[in-house]
Design goal:
The chain is mostly beta strands. It folds into 2 domains: about 25-60 and about 240-374, Jelly Rolls, CATH 2.60.120; about 65-165 and about 175-240, Jelly Rolls (Sandwich), CATH 2.60.120. Helices cover about 5% and strands about 35% of the residues. The protein has helices at about 330-335, 355-360, 370-374, and strands at about 25-30, 35-40, 60, 80, 85-90, 100-105, 105-115, 115-120, 125-130, 130-135, 140-145, 155-160, 205-210, 215-220, 235-240, 260-265, 265-270, 275, 290, 295-300, 315-320, 325, 340, 340-350, 355, 360-365. It has a 7-stranded antiparallel beta sheet with strand order 16-17-24-20-21-3-26. Strands 15-10-7-12-5-4-25 form a 7-stranded antiparallel beta sheet. The radius of gyration is 22 Å and the shape is elongated. Pfam families: HgmA_N (PF20510).
Length: about 375
C-alpha cells in the first residue's frame, strides 16, 4: 500500500467527476503505469501562448516526405527521426528491391499506410496491403515487391535495436487485443508471382547492413532457395482490422492498454476505432498529461475503409518528454462518442532527434495548430 495525499478540490475517482470549473492533468511516471497524481487546474495546461526551445511539439505529414526509394530502386527508406534505440523512416518504393536486404543492426517493423505488394523472404512470401504491420526479425533476408498497379505506396519503417515482442497480457488472457492465431507468416507455397532479383550479370545480391554500414554478398543462385523451415523465429503480418480494442463505458482506457508491440522500453501502440466512454460522470476526452518519461510520435492512419474522417492520414506529431499534452477546451466542449479512425503511437524512452529530411517538410508553428491542440 502507499499513502495517497490530498489537497484542495479533487475527484476521488481519476478521469471522472472532475470538479466544476477545473481541468484535470495526469502527472505520472512510466507512461500511465507508474506512480501518479492528478492535478486540478483552473485552466487547461494545453492552453499555452507559445512554446520556445527544443521541447516544442513538432508536426509533419509523413505522406509528403519525398522518400529516396520512390524513384531510385536501390535506395533505402528515408530516415526522419532517430535515437540510440530506434530509427523511424518513410518508404514510397514503387519498384521491386533489386536485392535482398539483411538488417543485422536490429528488427524491422513496417506499417503500410497505403499500397500493396509482396514481402519475399527466405521463409517464403507474404502479401501485404494498407493498414497492416509486417515484423521482420534481425538477420532475415527480404525483398519488398510493390504491386505496380496499386495506389501511392507509403510505408512507415521502424528499425529497433532491441527485439520486437508482443506485450504481456496478464489477466486479459490470450485473445485481446488479438488472438495470435490471426498472425500470418510467409509461405513457401504462396504462389504469388514476383519478379526475380537476378541481375543482368546473372548474380543475386544480399545487401547487408551492419553497424550502420552496407556490404554486399553475391551469389550465382537465388539465396531464398529454402525448401523447408521450422522454429519460433519468422517474419509475420498483423492486420489492423484484426485488432479488437479495449473500451470501458465509465473510464478512458490508458494508452498502454492498446500496446501492440514493444522493443525494450519502447512501445508501439495502435488505437483502433471504438466507442468512447458514455457514463454521465466520466470525462469524455483523454486527460491532459505531462510526458516526462517518453517522447511520443502520434500518427493518424485513417479509417481503413477509404473514408476521410478527422485529420488526414499520415499527419504526425512529436511531443517531447516534459511537454504538456492532451485536449484543449475545444475538445472538452465537443467530446466524441466514438474514435472513428486508427491512430499509431510510438513512445520512446530516449529523446528523438530529427533529420534534414524531417525538417525540410516540417509543418511550421505546429504546436499552435488545431490539428495538434484540438
Amino acid at each position: 500500500m502507499f499513502a495517497k495525499h490530498v489537497q484542495g478540490r479533487i475527484s476521488r475517482q481519476a478521469h471522472a467527476r472532475v470538479p466544476q470549473g477545473t481541468f484535470e492533468e495526469h502527472h505520472g511516471r512510466q507512461g500511465f503505469e507508474g506512480d501518479v497524481s492528478q492535478l486540478y487546474h483552473a485552466h487547461p495546461t494545453t492552453d499555452w501562448l507559445r512554446v520556445e526551445g527544443p521541447i516544442r511539439p513538432r508536426g509533419i505529414r509523413l505522406t509528403d516526405v519525398p522518400a529516396a526509394d520512390e524513384h531510385d530502386e536501390r535506395a533505402l527508406p528515408t530516415p526522419l527521426m532517430f535515437n540510440e534505440d530506434i530509427t523511424v523512416s518513410v518508404s514510397k518504393r514503387t519498384a521491386p528491391m533489386p536485392y535482398y536486404f539483411r538488417n543485422t543492426d536490429g528488427d524491422t517493423l513496417l506499417l503500410v499506410q497505403s499500397g500493396s505488394g509482396a514481402l519475399v523472404t527466405d521463409y517464403g512470401t507474404l502479401a501485404y496491403g494498407p493498414l497492416e504491420y509486417l515484423v521482420i526479425p534481425k538477420g532475415t533476408n527480404y525483398r519488398i515487391v510493390p504491386d505496380p498497379g496499386a495506389e501511392q505506396h507509403a510505408t512507415y519503417v521502424v528499425e529497433t535495436r532491441e527485439p520486437i515482442t508482443l506485450p504481456e497480457r496478464g489477466l486479459l488472457g490470450h485473445f485481446l487485443p488479438f488472438d495470435r492465431g490471426v498472425l500470418d507468416v510467409p509461405r513457401l507455397d504462396a504462389n504469388i508471382p514476383v519478379p526475380s532479383a537476378q541481375s543482368p550479370a546473372g548474380e543475386w545480391e544480399v545487401l547487408v547492413k551492419r553497424a550502420g554500414e552496407l556490404s554486399s554478398i553475391f551469389y550465382a543462385f537465388d539465396p531464398a532457395d529454402v525448401e523447408g523451415w521450422t522454429g519460433t523465429l519468422a517474419p509475420f503480418r498483423l492486420r489492423l482490422a484484426d485488432l479488437r480494442p479495449l473500451s470501458c463505458e465509465r473510464l478512458e482506457m490508458p494508452p498502454m492498454a492498446h500496446a501492440t508491440f514493444q522493443a525494450g522500453q519502447n512501445w508501439f501502440v495502435t488505437m483502433a476505432p471504438r466507442p468512447t466512454q458514455t457514463a454521465d460522470d466520466a470525462d469524455k476526452a483523454q486527460p491532459a498529461h505531462r510526458n516526462v518519461d517518453y517522447d511520443e510520435l502520434f500518427v493518424f492512419l485513417g479509417t481503413g475503409d477509404g473514408g476521410q474522417v478527422g485529420p488526414p492520414a499520415g499527419l504526425a506529431s512529436v511531443t517531447p518528454a516534459g511537454m504538456n499534452h492532451g485536449p484543449d477546451q475545444v475538445r472538452h466542449a465537443n467530446p466524441r462518442t466514438r474514435l472513428p479512425f486508427y491512430v499509431w503511437n510510438v513512445d520512446t524512452v530516449r529523446p528523438l532527434r530529427y533529420t534534414e529530411a524531417f525538417e525540410a517538410v516540417e509543418i511550421p508553428d505546429f504546436a499552435r495548430q488545431e490539428s495538434y491542440r484540438g
